[in-house]
Specification:
Layout (H helix, E strand, L loop, with lengths): L8 E3 H11 L4 E4 L6 H9 L5 E4 L3 H15 L3 E5 L3 H15 L4 E7 L15 H5 L5 E4 L6 H13 L6 E6 H5 L1 E3 L21 H13 L3 E5 L2 H4 L3 H11 L3 E3 L14 E4 L7 H8 L3 E5 L20 E6 L13 E4 L2 H14 L5 H26 L8 H11 L5 E4 L4 H8 L9 E3 L9 H11 L5 E6 H4 L5 H7 L4 E7 L4 H10 L14 H8 L2 E5 L2 H13 L4 E6 L16
Parallel strand pairs: 2-3, 2-4, 4-5, 5-7, 6-7, 9-10, 9-12, 10-11, 12-13, 13-14, 15-16, 15-17, 17-18, 18-20, 19-20
Antiparallel strand pairs: 1-8
Helix pairs in contact: 1-2, 1-6, 3-4, 3-16, 8-12, 10-12, 13-14, 14-15, 14-21
Length: 571
């Protein structure tokens, strides 16, 4: 450390590291570059207690930070160098920001003095990140570092959580910073840091409508999971006797074994039976849910005006965007649900009959959901169907396991058919933008957030091609992760869309099959390749029980030929 004891000053890079440490940061995911040399030197020299995880791609670093933040309740931090590093790290910040997840992306930059001189890797980072983050700043002077970081953490963790970006120029990292300015409030290292309680008038109005409703339904997005509101949500559902459906991002807000749980609804993981339950509602309570195109099947279920809408959300811009709203409750899910529950419980009335009816509907829905699934999962022919993979995972994995799923085959099948036995976030898929290649690096972020859980990355072979280099990272970090590859040599979601909407005119969606098990073995993973349904359980069991990272390559039915729980391929 180069702190000057006479002047009580330290370098900008050292100040940056200290303020991260003081916010309670324990893990940083990133990739080295020449503009990052002072920062890396500070990380090397200082005793800060943080672990740096070197990745093989800046996108991977940002996806790791995203999943880490979702599971830990803390800010995820990722970093990368200037130029290409900044453009590569951007996709993860976009995903996190639109998913209301606090991720700090730090990109080092060319020196301030080199701007406008065609310096190698010069890029207007502030303009690049402005439209895709909640908060964004490129630092011009070393003395700005502590306050800029404090602002970033406050912005990320208050109100609607979101991503932030800081640009850290090379010369700024070496400038002196007054040590007295290097401090932080670690309250803002986790989220929601300052949960907002809605105003009493909206809470009274919401409770009044809920009590009067004859057939209310609750639809939850990821908001109540971010807020840690599973207990309050479940208690309110029980008090109302109302069934609970979720978006993909909301999966886990209530145990899917709870008699009032309906599971995931919408065009990706939903069912016809779930549509009918939603369409029959006279009131829908939306909780931390944007009511976007997938959850509502392009705003057809429910249809606008078909029922009353009560909407709870920390982001006022979401409310009323897609449905006329009878009561808007602006605030965090946990205090909002707690206050509404108190008001509902104060109202006299026996809702036993309504709850029993809701439980019967939910049981019928699950029975209908699994009718075809159970039959297809049990088939013992020469074809491994996606249903069989999910069935075996459900049978083998401990209930506290974490599954990170890529788009394509993994997301709809896990969403629809993998029943989470306990409430809480144990399933993650990148639903804001759906970029391929999210799950494998994301699973490593999950390992650091939930070190005692078994973590599974469920990927398609299309996704595998995006970040196979991270297999080396899994081995180097000795991560207890199992990668399950649905190997069908096609970009399946797109081919299914060509089948359903474009007359089976298949164009540029098929590729040659890779022996993923051999690739993984070359990186040092224990690996299995499975072609027959009867061999799948043994391979998965061995992979789940092995030490360190493992991979199971499953030759799988193509998605466009499967009985996928998808009602619309372009949502």
């Amino acid at each position: 450390m180069t702190t000057d004891n006479k002047t009580n000053r330290m370098t900008g890079a050292e100040a940056f590291v200290r303020v991260l440490q003081q916010h309670g940061v324990k893990h940083i995911f990133g990739l080295c570059g020449d503009t990052s040399l002072p920062l890396y030197d500070a990380l090397y020299q200082l005793d800060h207690g943080m672990t740096h995880i070197l990745t093989r791609d800046e996108r991977s670093a940002s996806y790791m930070a995203d999943v880490y933040a979702r599971l830990s309740g803390r800010v995820g931090v990722c970093e990368g160098p200037s130029g290409g590093g900044a453009t590569y790290i951007l996709p993860g910040l976009v995903e996190a920001d639109e998913s209301s997840i606090p991720v700090l992306g730090v990109t080092t930059d060319i020196g301030v003095g080199g701007r406008g001189k065609y310096t190698l890797t010069e890029l207007d980072q502030e303009s690049l990140f402005r439209p895709v983050t909640k908060w964004n700043s490129v630092i011009d002077q070393g003395e700005q570092i502590p306050n800029t970081l404090r602002q970033a953490f406050r912005q990320m963790t208050t109100g609607k959580p979101g991503a932030a970006h800081i640009g850290l120029p090379f010369d700024v990292q070496k400038q002196p910073v007054n040590q007295a300015s290097v401090w932080a409030d670690d309250t803002f290292g986790h989220y929601p840091a300052a949960p907002q309680t809605p105003d009493g008038h909206s809470l009274d109005a919401a409770a009044e409508l809920l009590v009067k409703a004859k057939n209310p339904i609750i639809i939850c997005g990821g908001g109540p999971l971010n807020a840690g509101a599973s207990g309050e949500l479940t208690a309110l559902a029980e008090a109302l006797g109302a069934p609970v459906a979720t978006s993909i991002s909301g999966k886990g807000v209530i145990s899917e074994q709870h008699p009032l749980a309906l599971g995931v609804v919408g065009s990706n993981g939903g069912t016809m039976a779930a549509r009918e339950v939603i369409d029959a509602a006279d009131l829908i309570l939306l909780v931390g849910c944007r009511a976007g195109s997938v959850t509502t099947e392009r705003w057809r279920h429910p249809q606008a005006g078909s029922c009353k809408i009560v909407h709870i959300d920390a982001d006022p811009g979401v409310i009323g965007a897609n449905y006329p709203t009878d009561v808007a409750v602006i605030g965090d899910a946990r205090p909002a649900l707690k206050e509404i529950l108190n008001r509902v419980q104060a109202e006299a009335g026996d809702r036993t009959e309504r709850r029993q009816a809701s439980e019967r509907r939910a049981a019928e829905l699950w029975k209908a959901r699994f009718a075809d699934f159970d039959r297809l999962a049990a088939l013992e022919d020469d074809l491994i169907r996606p249903e069989r993979i999910v069935h075996e995972m459900q049978a083998l994995l401990p209930k506290d396991s974490v599954i990170v799923a890529d788009p394509g085959t993994p997301c709809p099948y896990i969403s629809a058919y993998y029943r989470l036995e306990e409430s809480g976030r144990r399933f993650i898929s990148n639903r804001a933008h759906g970029a391929l290649g999210y799950a494998m690096p994301g699973a490593l972020g999950a390992c650091y957030a939930r070190p005692n859980a078994r973590v599974v990355a469920f990927v398609g072979d299309g996704s595998f091609g995006f970040n196979a280099g991270e297999l080396e990272t899994l081995v180097r970090m000795k991560a207890p992760i199992t990668v399950v590859v649905a190997s069908n040599a096609v970009y399946g979601w797109i081919k299914a869309g060509q089948k359903s909407g474009f007359g089976e005119r298949y164009f540029s969606v098929d590729f040659d099959r890779t022996d993923h098990a051999r690739v993984a073995e070359a990186f040092g993973l224990k690996s299995w390749s499975v072609k027959q349904p009867g061999d799948l359980r043994g391979a998965l069991k061995a992979a789940f029980e092995a030490d360190g990272p493992t991979l199971v390559d499953v030759i799988t039915q193509p998605l466009h030929e499967a009985n996928a729980p998808v009602s619309e391929w372009v949502a």
